[in-house]
Structure formats: structure tokens, C-alpha cells
């Protein structure tokens, strides 16, 4: 096990030389200040029927958007803390950390104020090899199409870009929010990619 990193409770449990589990525990003090800041900012900008702009009560904003803001902020903390932890501890990993979806799906965002997440990582173990001078290998130059590079960069910007709460969406936006099915009382999280819908 490793000690708590930075200000968050992050531990690394090495199951073997090639398999590890990063555990992150978030308490209310880790995310609540940013959540409250975003709620206040949204209250200043929100244009909701029945209220003057900038005069929407904090409680109304929290009831309407509090859960989505909380989920967004927790995800932001997770993505950055896992990446920074790996870099700061010079961990050599294969591929990307894999989140424990089963554990994440058990979270009750309405009642919990402490959360625990797990990410499985593949570790690169040290090894040695002897290559005979008689072995000849052919090197193949790899050419990457400019469109592939541009599309990859655009995708990374969308996935890891800054999340905002504008009043009106524009072309190319990704929308996150809560949707309520007719006849249901339980809202569900939704993610819409406008470019794909336009197609």
C-alpha cells in the first residue's frame, strides 16, 4: 500500500508485479467547495422562468442541477487525480486505468456524501532479454493520415475539455443532464453528442 497522495486519500494495492488497484476515497470536503462555487455561478447566470436573471435562489438551483453538478465535479477530480497520481509516482502502466463500473453503479448520489472508486491498472514489470546478432528485423515506417490526427485531437478536447453551463447550446456541444421518462419519478443521467445527432 502507498500513503495518501496530495490532499486526497489515494492508495495503490499491488496485487502482483503486473496488476495493481488504485483506490480513491472522496469525502465531502474534497468536492463540496467546488460544487458550491459552481452552484453560485450558475445561479448568477441562470435564466429560469419565474425568477429574474441572477436572482434564482440557491436552493432552486441545487434542486434542479445539484446532482449533475456533483457528478461532474467528482468525475473531474477522479480523472485528474488518477492521471496525476500515476505521473507523480512514476508508475509504468499498460493502456488506461479501468474503472470498477460495478462499484460505481452502486453509488447513491442523492444520499451519499463519501465515495470510493477503484481503477485497475496493468503494470510494466522489469525484464531482460538477449537478442542474437544473427536476428534481423525489418522496420516499417508508419504514416498517420492528417485527418486521423485531427480527429483524435478533437476527440481528446471534447473528452477532457472544460465543462461549462451555458444557457444555450451551440453546434458541436456535448450535453450532460438529467432526463425524466414520462410516468417515472426517478431522473436518469443522459449524455448527448450533438454532432452525432445532426447526422
Word description of this protein:
With 199 residues, this protein is an alpha+beta fold. The protein has one domain (9-198): Alpha-Beta Plaits (2-Layer Sandwich), CATH 3.30.70. It has 5 helices and 6 strands, in the order ββααβαβαββα. The strands form 2 sheets. It has a 4-stranded antiparallel sheet. Strands 5-6 form a two-stranded antiparallel sheet. Helix 1 crosses helix 2. It starts with 8 loop residues before the first strand and ends with a helix. Residues 1-5 have low confidence and may be disordered.
Helix and strand topology:
Elements: E1 9-14, E2 19-26, H1 28-45, H2 58-88, E3 93-99, H3 101-104, E4 115-123, H4 146-160, E5 174-179, E6 188-193, H5 194-198
Antiparallel strand pairs: 1-2, 2-4, 3-4, 5-6
Helix pairs in contact: 1-2
Amino acid at each position: 500500500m502507498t500513503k495518501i497522495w496530495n490532499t486526497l486519500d489515494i492508495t495503490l494495492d499491488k496485487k502482483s508485479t503486473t496488476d495493481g488497484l488504485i483506490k480513491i476515497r472522496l469525502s465531502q470536503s474534497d468536492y463540496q467547495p467546488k460544487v458550491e462555487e459552481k452552484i453560485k455561478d450558475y445561479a448568477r447566470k441562470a435564466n429560469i422562468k419565474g425568477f429574474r436573471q441572477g436572482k434564482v435562489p440557491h436552493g432552486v438551483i441545487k434542486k434542479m442541477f445539484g446532482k449533475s453538478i456533483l457528478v461532474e465535479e467528482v468525475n473531474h477530480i477522479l480523472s485528474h487525480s488518477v492521471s496525476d497520481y500515476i505521473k507523480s509516482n512514476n508508475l509504468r502502466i499498460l493502456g488506461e486505468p479501468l474503472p470498477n463500473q460495478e462499484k460505481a453503479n452502486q453509488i447513491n448520489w442523492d444520499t451519499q456524501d463519501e465515495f470510493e472508486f477503484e481503477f485497475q491498472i496493468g503494470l510494466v514489470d522489469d525484464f531482460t532479454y538477449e537478442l542474437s546478432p544473427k536476428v534481423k528485423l525489418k522496420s516499417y515506417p508508419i504514416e498517420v493520415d492528417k485527418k486521423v490526427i485531427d480527429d483524435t485531437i478533437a476527440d481528446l478536447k471534447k473528452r477532457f475539455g472544460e465543462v461549462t453551463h451555458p444557457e444555450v447550446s451551440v453546434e458541436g456541444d456535448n450535453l450532460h443532464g438529467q432526463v425524466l421518462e414520462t410516468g417515472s419519478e426517478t431522473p436518469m443521467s443522459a449524455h448527448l453528442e450533438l454532432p452525432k445527432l445532426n447526422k
